[in-house]
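Form P-L/3: holo structure prediction, ligand magnesium ion.
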Amino acid sequence: MARVKTVFRCTACGAEAPKWAGWCSACDASGTLVEELVAAPRQPGAGLVRPSTPVPVAEALGDATEPVPTGDAELDRVLGGGLVPGSVTLLGGEPGVGKSTLLLQALASVAERRAAACGGRRASCLYVTAEESARQVALRAERLGVRTPSLWLVAETALPHVLAHLDALAPDVVVVDSIQTVHDPELGSAPGSVGQVRGCAQRLVREAKARGTSVVLVGHVTKDGALAGPRVLEHMVDTVLSFEGERHHALRMLRAVKHRFGGTHELGLYEMGDRGLVPVPDPSALFLADRQPGVPGSVVAPVLDGQRPLLVEVQALVVPSGAPSPRRTAQGVDAGRLSQVLAVLERHAGLDLGRCEVHVAVAGGVRVPEPGVDLAVALAVASSATGRPVPPDLVTCGEVGLGGEVRQVHRTDRRLAEAARLGFTSAVVPRSAPEAPAGMRLVRVRSIVEALRRPAPEPVGAG
Ligand code: TYD
Ligand code: MG
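OUTPUT (holo model):
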């Protein structure tokens, strides 16, 4: 039996303290220290891994960092090609968003490809379920139509057993669902504690590197971020993916928050359906599918999520209200930016919104945290307030400054090209915007006042 000592660990940053205190001396968070039992090291040097051999930097690249495609186009796009052998990826997301579904599908796809390449019933992929029973996962697999013989499944929560399965099956890719529910009895502390989560992840990272196995860990994040595990884990793993979506919408977004083997600018899009997650190759068409052109308060904006241009419909509804401070709601756009745009409209465009409720939403459950949507919000609010629809073939993008000026946003060319691709023929843009893509007329404006007046457009762009 290993000797055990008690320490206090911060659930926010993972720092260790010898005594309990009301705050963490490392990160200043208050009320985050929790008791934890740790086994004292048995012998000096025990558990030390073999030393590495230094090599010239140009020779250190090797060929092990080549990503291997999973076959899931959206996941591969976000990962910059696929899973790198020996890498560890953490997939975070709120409970119920679809993490288990995504990974079961992705593993099935990998297993299918490997089976085609090497044949036989070898367990090329292993799904370790530490949260649900094997039967529950099997039922999900049935619902998803997953029958690949080389995708194996085991319900296991003890880390030593998980490692024994890795020894026995030598899979190429392993999913551990979730890292919060596996535990190592050697570590002493309670399952789910920060020390356990960190200790188990550390071990799995080491094993991934040593075996050249790609390991994917599932990590839960609650709405208030109370669970410390994933944040502590972010430093240990190579890649952190975040899976997001609104509870009442089918749309799911996959992003890389950290990626040692590539950029973090790609966006993966899926729709959750009856038979799992379906990739959305043309999100703009999806978001605009149910639009009613010609309705006051509706404006289409080309926005950028990472590097991916998307067309979204911004809707505004302005209605008179007798309340002393009428309601303002913002769905999908930042509430602070909405207040700012409303203030600019009142001050610079003379729009009287003081006695009106203002509701602004981005259709389809999309979140647009960027300022490029400001001008669309302004035009949508003005359109609803005046009852005058904007032309159905018009898009707009630009940031609205506090002085009422309209500024250019990042990659306006890509945004306009996407709008032109979907058949939009005119765009209200800041004066400094680049040339119009083929088939599109630009209306260049300096200020919000000019945007609302909409001066004569330029001739159609030649591209
Ligand atoms: P799940 O993958 O279990 O989420 P997580 O692992 O992130 O907790 O999936 C959660 C939800 O997805 C669940 O409410 C059921 C729904 N779902 C579908 O709508 N269609 C499907 O084909 C599957 C498998 C799940
Ligand atoms: Mg799950």
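COMMENT: The CA atoms of residues 88 and 215 lie 5 Å apart.
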